[in-house]
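Morning!

This is the sequence you dropped in the shared folder:
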Amino acid sequence: MQMLNSEIIAGVSIFLLGFLFFIAGLLNSIWATIFVVDFLIMAIGIATIGVGFWTAMYEKKNNLHHTEHHH
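The structure's back. Tokens below.
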């Protein structure tokens, strides 16, 4: 499970929060006034997911976590 890290989990939760705000905006006129913020929150979530995938690929390629210590 190397490709799942904390950035991906945080990005998914931020995206889902923005999506829930978007759904609330469809149902309530008060929430509809902040549609731009809803899209911004979802974009931040998607960007965080992208950073998570980039970090996972970088760690896999460069093997940052060594289990053996040489002294």
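Headline: Residues 35-62 form the longest helix (28 residues).

More detail when I'm at my desk.
O.
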